[in-house]
Amino acid sequence: MTRSFLILLASVLGISPVLSAAEVQCAILIYGGTQTSRCFSDEFLSAVQRETTITTERRFKSVKLATEEVFGYPFAVMTGEADFHLAGKERENLKRYLENGGFLLASAGCSSKNFDEAFRREMRAVFPGKEWKPLPKDSPIFRTVYKIDRLDLKAPAEEPGLLAMERGGKIVAVYSPHGLNNTANSPGCCCCGGNEIKNSLEMNVNILAYALLY
């Protein structure tokens, strides 16, 4: 049982953890060798703390997917704008992570087609035959903290859909082919001419709350 799990358990039960740090920590993954996100806002972590009783560390921790360190975090973010290939150890760890209580939030930054194609390809390799399914609007993810009726794209277009993967009847991963990066709260970043979901902060808050409490 990891320290993060003990912290999570204490938060869910509403008791004071007998640990030196009470924050739920979230990982931003380094994958495909050296690729990671430089423009995924961590502001939603602060929003979770403001809007719920969950105590969060307000900054991501950069974690290499190929290391055992990833298993110490209940929630991980994977995003980018480029093609990539996961090494064998990265695929193995991602599979173990999602099968043993970890939760993945993934997003194609700037609606990147290169990342989208690479992510779908790599997930097929990690989970052969496992399909991503559209996240239904009656999913608790749309109401854990904020009531979200629709996802709004920065550039007018058909409403984007989120995709979900389940293990044992529980959603363990959510993927958006459009940016959930919330670059408005990430200084020096933009959506680079691509598209972005404007209410991504609220959506990310809901996803984290679901991951921790369901």
Describe the structure.
This protein is an alpha/beta fold. The protein has one domain: Rossmann fold (3-Layer(aba) Sandwich). Helix content is 28%, strand content 16%. It contains five helices and seven strands; from the N terminus they run H-E-H-E-E-H-E-H-E-E-E-H. The chain has helices spanning 3-13, 43-51, 88-99, 113-126, 200-213; strands at residues 26-30, 61-64, 75-80, 103-108, 133-134, 163-167, 170-176. A seven-stranded mixed beta sheet has the order 2-1-3-4-7-6-5. A hairpin with a 2-residue loop joins strand 6 (163-167) and strand 7. The longest helix is centred in the middle third of the chain and has 14 residues, at 113-126. The model is unreliable at 1-21 (pLDDT under 50).
Q: How large is the radius of gyration?
A: 16 Å
Write out the strand line-up for the largest beta sheet, numbering strands in chain order: 2-1-3-4-7-6-5
Can you say what the CATH homologous superfamily is?
Domain of unknown function DUF4159
CATH topology: Rossmann fold
- What is the overall shape? globular
Biggest sheet overview: 7 strands, mixed
The first-level CATH class is given as Alpha Beta
Mean pLDDT: 85
From the coordinates shown, what is the CATH architecture? 3-Layer(aba) Sandwich
Helix residue percentage = 25-40%
Number of helices in the DSSP assignment: 5
| Class based on secondary structure composition and strand pairing | alpha/beta
Unreliable runs: 1-21
Strand content: 15-25%
Tally of distinct domains: 1
Calculate the terminal CA-CA distance, rounded to whole Å: 18 Å
Q: Order of helices and strands, N to C?
A: HEHEEHEHEEEH
